Queue: 4 jobs
Job 1
Amino acid sequence: MLFGQLRIKFGLVLSLLALVMLSVSCHRSDEERSKILKIYNWADYIDESVLDDFKVWYKEQTGEDIRIIYQVFDINEIMLTKIERGHEDFDLICPSEYIIERMLKKNLLLPIDRNFGSTPDYIGNISPFIQTQLNKLSQPGMKTTDYAIAYMWGTAGILYNEKYASREDVSSWSCLWNPSYKGKILMKESYRDAFGTAVIYANAQSLREGKITIEDIMNNNSHEAVDLAEKYLKDMKPNIAGWETDFGKEMMTKEKAWLNFTWSGDAVWSIEEAASVGVDLAYVVPSEGSNIWYDGWAIPKYARNIKAASYFMNFLCRPDIAMRNMDATGYVSAIASEEILEAGIDTSFVKKCDLTYFFGNIPGVDSVNVNPALYPDKSVVERCAMIRDFGSDTEYVLEMWSHVKGDNLNIGILILIFAVFGVLFILSVYKRYIRYKQNKRHRRRKW
């Protein structure tokens, strides 16, 4: 009896000790985690020296040390899966606009903590134009710009070789369906951009007549619109040399392709690389209109260091940091300060652009010498629109994309495949027949 009571008391003591140890361990773990900032970004999408500079700046502003764990992804949906299903505790992610919208719908984002104390709030440097665009993604009770900051932005258009294609030809999406360029066209491996291009071209006449807006077209996810896109994409396919994610830049520089549907940042990189080897490339947003895209930073639901994440977002909005990231990536920052404008002026471009939509009331911004691939004229932006999240129609759009990508095989290749499988089947049957005959003889000998 006494032994039993002692055993019970001893067990209670052990349990209490275990709880104390667990509490201490959890406290230590939380304390250590508060000194770590976990960032999940696209590859090659930041000047990595900025990460080191942030640690110094964060110490100056808060008196706290911070260690950065930095990882990269190459597909929006992979990043989203890690957050939504894997509950990964990244503190910062860099999704595209439609993923920001999807995460807001699913309540997967946390609000930015803009209580920076004596530290200036640089988030106000973001262009009001882009803030307005992102806020179109807002959900009931959730304003987008309370949950995400814009990072880089750009357009989708045609990169072309001036030796083989005229600007007049490529100034319409019809060039992608022109048999003169058969086998010389590259398309981005992007179902969203492919869909957008197809529905714009299919509705070109209605756009010209003002019967419909580019925003309406880009965000009509009805089955009829998706089926129409499938038809036009299949009609385009005989001209397509390949669907690329990154090799298009090299193919264009080496003149193995003449036209490349691509994004403005990639186009600028390609133009500069090609010029160094004597190849003249140029970029244009077709007259019918196109996709305008935005990438941003956000704090996912399972983040464990909201403070450091918010400070990092603020740091990225400093004009000097924004310029460094632009130089490193080739893309255009969402920051619209005078320093950014001055850095963008390039008198080698003769045609002046109206950038009032982006830079606001800065004097002289209505007529600026800039690279139009980086900063398109107001008239170009007005014929572009953001492709939003397809929502419940995403699966149907992906099914359409699989139809487009899956019927690349012509009849000759299909016949060859069936012939190979036929020969393999005959060989398999023959081998089984020989094995059967051998076994039969063996049984006879044994008998």
Job 2
Amino acid sequence: MSTKLYRRMIYFLAAMVLPAIFLLHSCSEDDNVFVVPGDPIEEDYAIHFIDVGQGDAIFVETPEKVMLVDGGWSDGSVVSYLEGLDIEYIDIVIGTHPHADHIQGLIDVFYEFEVGEVIDPGVTHTSQTYYNYMSVIDTYDIPFTVGRKGMEWELSEHAHMKLVHPVNPTEHHLNNASIVAHVTLGEVTLLLTGDAEENAENQMLSEPELLASDILKVGHHGSNTSSQMAFLEAVNPAISVIQCGADNPYGHPHGPVLERLDAIDTDVYRTDLHGNIVVIIEDGVHYEVHTHQ
């Protein structure tokens, strides 16, 4: 484990005052402790679901590279969070789609951190936020990749990312243009869905084998426009994370989505209830969930 990643893990474990006990979830009394089949490896990882209110921001750490997926709003919360982790360089930034609650905070990130690459669906939007986002990418000459299904990135020796959506996105429905990334961290898998709605989910269900994951970032903040039962069953996550704001005007997460999540027997964590949600993965097979408000 890198010294920096070890220090961050210790910080979160101490701050959240949670026991470091690694047991099979099926026989553990600790609801936040999980293990997946596979051989342990000498790599450790962390996934941070940052509480940005009604928006998305996920930060993934591996021993070699770090990645930020979306940045919430432009309120400084993501920048402050990353500064608290002593981050100076971000290898990959993904703007899943052009809505402000996903990319506005990335503008601040581009100003404050050196970024190696931006991955974006390449669909345009008429908002000032989108114009500012593209302008600062151009100003800092950040390498820009139009993300499409099938593209892959290596994150470390035992970690990689593959895009499972989109194929042919258009600006006519930005949520369904969302980049959806399947991330493998040792033996633990993570599906990051942006705001993908039912139409996008149906496209992905043409190859359900690409979706199975231990951890799911629930689509569109828990809106009933997303997370249809067939999609959830294909992913079959042990834990599901909903990023939404407390008392948000949309009523997220919607009741039917929570019912469907309950039906697939997944443990649900929510930023509106739990604040920052951090998944610590040790040796590529053991992982546990920590929350901190």
Job 3
Amino acid sequence: MGKNKEEKIQPEVAEAAEKTKAAGLEGVKLDVSVRPIQPKNNLYAFATVTINDSFAVENICVRKGEKGLYVNMPSVPDGHGNYNDVFKPITADARNLIVSRVLEAYAAAIEKMREMVDASRSATEKSSLTGALKDNAEKVKKQPKKTAGKSEQSL
């Protein structure tokens, strides 16, 4: 995920957090885990939200549309080509709270993945650095030896 995408997530998260605080929902405990996936069409991740250590909502989707990232609640097909949400926050403020926390967790998961990729690149570079050092050691061995200095000649 590039820096521009990350910049788009942060204002959305901050705005939703402000709305949540104003609605008086800051006492609700939400534990959110996000599992980013290889993007399939517009699907980028799945999330699970645990509410007040009592209820777990699984299969919340993080998707990307024309206006950026958005969150879909879990849903099931109705047989007529439509989908009905299985879990529905009743108020807009409750929905904003869940959406903001899911997007925060998604941004954190992407950052963690980015750090892991950077660390693995660093490890790869170190192994090639070892190879470069070995090559340079061979070059040093092949160089002509310097003649002895005055102090060694007198011995």
Job 4
Amino acid sequence: MSHGDYDVVIIGTGPAGLGASFHLTEESPSLSILMVDREKICSGGLLNDCKQNYTYPIGFVVENWSRDEAERLLSQVEKHLQPVFKEKMNLEVYRRRAERIGVTLLDVRQAHVGTDRSRALIRRLMDELDSRGVHFALEREVTDVFDDSLGTRVVINGVETVCARKVVVAPGRKGFRFLQQVMERMGIDYVDNVVDVGVRLETTADNYSIVNDYYDPKFIFPDGVRTFCTNSGCARVVLERYQGFNLVNGHAFSEERAGNNLVNFALLKTIGLKDPVRSGQQMAVFLARLANEIGGGKPLMQRVGDFRMGKRSSAETFNEDLYSFFPSCPVTAGDLGLAVPAKIMRHIWAAMKKLDTIVPGILHPSTIMYYPEIKMYANKPAFLDRHFRVSGNVYMVGDGAGTSRGITAAWASGIRAAEGILRSLGRTVS
């Protein structure tokens, strides 16, 4: 493949980049498009677990989205991802319990692919784009983006320059540092003062029985705490590796796999920082590195029973007596109180107590709290228009750019950027 001039270069092959590419090729098949990714297959949520939410405002950053626009584009996302929706039961029972104690339970249309089947979905999507003439440069890292008097250019691996009429930057959450570097060099104003910090809980399905009725229950608690990314069936907690530290996350395989009777989900607290704090991302990195330092290079885990007694967990805590299951991600047993800021832990613990009232069992002494789970998607560029344009010919979309918080909303943000590109290029938009 020759890297000549392209109509559009898309950085990232995750859902935001795919959303842009599919829409561009549908509306204007003659456009030349190059998609670049430092991985050999798109990563992030589309690869790992691939849980999809199709109800506004889940996954949408509300200051950038109206309900009408989100729902208009979700129908297009559904067309490509072809979800099989999960059924829900007994929702009103849980909702009544929640409302009595000031908690909201959202009713969300959900689909789940599973980590074991996600690669097949990604291959189908990539093969379809390939058949439409889209070019790919995989395992090639974009190191800079320019949009100036010399033209719009993308630098790959620090040495190769690709020219484009338009560029879509969609590197996902792990690309937050790259996005900041590009925005600072290009002089793009951005806000970086919000971050989600929390724990991932792991327990048995018997202790969180709501998963038999609602696959990924969305509870909203006071003090900015919410449940996020529930996994059950054949579920496990996993490590997410960043430069210099590890975070925890959760996956689940499809229903085709034999179950392990475990459930995991995150409780996240949204923190909005005020001046003069410069960067929510840097705060998150500091907290993550502190936890990894205390954990000897790994995240921490603690049993609820130990936490309630005010003592640290040890390797001996994870035995076959009262604590009847082993951790699916055996990191460092310790004391979360040494690593989690007190205000964050206080609000998360209050949410856990409320949740135990709604779904009795989550505070069983065997439940494991893993820390840290932090979502790195707080970059919010100053957009020049509703299509997420940040300069004359550059657009920034997806979780990393703060336009979304999940697969379906990221895909929708890619469509919005593509609509802006088509209008700018004078192409007909249906």
